[in-house]
């Protein structure tokens, strides 16, 4: 048993028969409140079959790829999933946490959960149970909801760790949580945490991380690029508000830093397929900045990611960096995600506390 596991089991309270119940009544655990944080997911390892299972689950999600199954599934199963597990596996291998044999996203999410749990236990005792799940891969949302119900959680606060709403992130995480509730004979009461893209403590944590990175830089970056995960522009036209929330985060961050408009820009990364996605594309924009504007020194952050993952550690810090340098850029500074930084944990804990009002003594 790891320390992480021990933190969960040490405060388990025994089930008892309800007062005035018949002797043969099933024992019931004392009521608790569950806080279940969720992130995107991770393959179990970098091998072909593990990567294929993970990519199949991810790319079969209609929230992610909304093409008709008659068209998409033959292409996915016969073409994409025969090749992409190799390239994706190589990308994951380049950033893999070899010591714990897991992806950085899983490592960081564990640390975030442990830090949030410590704060919640200090404030609320064992009336609260804090855990995490993944939308794709393990630990699954269904398994963690079941564990919370088994532990006596009659109320669950579900917290997708995405600052900005998107159908392919927040909504599909919520979908999976609701599907897990369907399987419960006695459903717990549920609440969903709304996106926190404009939360003051979140913006302040971002600003502090940028100020710290700039203070350490040998040469002050000329421009900060805020690179958000992309999505097809069609989704925006159909009502998904992700693009607007990303733009607002950049504006609030600029105002908090006290910067001019020329010192910060919004871009979008991780384009997939032939459809037009939100622009400007990060990989193209950083190259254009170097070749056409003569900008030689940039910093880049990823405000839409609560934890460093394949899109930040491999795509930004390797592919996008290479694009900038090949176009003439000289100094590229990647500012890590907030991860388990204390300011980030305080922001997330504050959001959780606000959403638990009326549920805790």
Descriptive notes:
The chain has 361 residues and is an alpha/beta fold. 48% of the residues lie in helices and 15% in strands. It has twelve helices and eight strands. The protein has helices at residues 3-9, 48-59, 69-95, 104-124, 141-150, 167-182, 200-216, 233-237, 242-257, 282-292, 310-326, 342-355; strands at 32-42, 128-137, 153-160, 189-192, 223-229, 264-269, 297-301, 331-334. A four-stranded parallel beta sheet has the order 2-1-3-4, sandwiched between helices. It has a four-stranded parallel beta sheet with strand order 6-5-7-8, with helices on both faces. Helix 11 links the parallel strand 7 and strand 8. The longest helix is centred in the first third of the chain and has 27 residues, at 69-95. It is globular and about 80 Å long. The two termini are 31 Å apart. Residues 1-10 have low confidence and may be disordered.
**Rg computed from alpha carbons, rounded to a whole number of angstroms:** 22 Å
Beta-strand fraction estimate: 15-25%
Cα-to-Cα separation, first versus last residue: 31 Å
Number of strands: 8
Q: What characteristic shape results from the CA principal axes?
A: globular
Major sheet size, sense and barrel closure: 4 strands, parallel
Average pLDDT confidence is 93
- Helix/strand order: HEHHHEHEHEHEHHEHEHEH
**Which strand order do you get reading across the main beta sheet?**
2-1-3-4
Query: Helix segment count?
Result: 12
What would you call the structural class? alpha/beta
Stretches where pLDDT falls below 50 for ≥5 residues? Answer: 1-10
How helical, in percent, are the residues? 40-55%
């Amino acid at each position: 048993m790891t320390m992480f596991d021990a933190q969960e089991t040490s405060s388990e309270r025994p089930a008892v028969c309800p007062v005035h119940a018949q002797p043969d009544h099933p024992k019931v655990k004392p009521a608790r409140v569950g806080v279940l944080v969720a992130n995107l997911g991770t393959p179990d390892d970098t091998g072909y079959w593990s990567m294929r299972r993970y990519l199949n689950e991810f790319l079969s999600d209609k929230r992610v790829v909304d093409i008709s199954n008659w068209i998409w599934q033959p292409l996915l199963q016969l073409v994409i999933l025969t090749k992409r597990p190799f390239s994706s596996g190589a990308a994951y291998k380049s950033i893999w946490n070899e010591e714990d044999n897991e992806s950085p996203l899983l490592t960081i999410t564990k640390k975030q959960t442990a830090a949030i749990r410590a704060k919640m236990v200090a404030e609320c005792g064992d009336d609260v149970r804090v855990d995490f799940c993944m939308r794709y891969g393990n630990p699954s949302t269904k398994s963690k909801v079941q564990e919370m119900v088994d532990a006596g959680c009659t109320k669950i606060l579900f917290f997708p760790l995405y600052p900005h709403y998107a159908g392919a992130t927040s909504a599909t995480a919520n979908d999976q949580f609701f599907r897990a509730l369907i399987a419960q004979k006695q459903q717990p009461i549920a609440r969903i945490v709304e996106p926190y893209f404009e939360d003051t403590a979140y913006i302040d944590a971002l600003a502090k991380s940028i100020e710290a990175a700039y203070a350490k830089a040998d040469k002050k970056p000329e421009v900060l690029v805020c690179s958000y995960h992309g999505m097809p522009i069609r989704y925006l036209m159909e009502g998904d508000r992700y693009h607007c929330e990303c733009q607002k985060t950049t504006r609030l961050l600029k105002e908090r830093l006290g910067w001019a408009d020329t010192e910060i820009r919004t871009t979008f990364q991780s384009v997939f397929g032939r459809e037009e996605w939100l622009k400007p594309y990060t990989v193209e924009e950083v190259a254009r900045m170097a070749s056409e504007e003569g900008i030689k020194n940039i910093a880049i952050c990823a405000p839409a990611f609560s934890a460093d993952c394949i899109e930040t550690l491999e795509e930004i810090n390797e592919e996008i960096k290479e694009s900038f340098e090949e176009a003439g850029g000289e100094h590229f500074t990647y500012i890590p995600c907030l991860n388990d930084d204390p300011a980030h944990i305080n922001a997330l804990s504050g959001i959780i506390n606000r959403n638990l009002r009326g549920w805790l003594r």
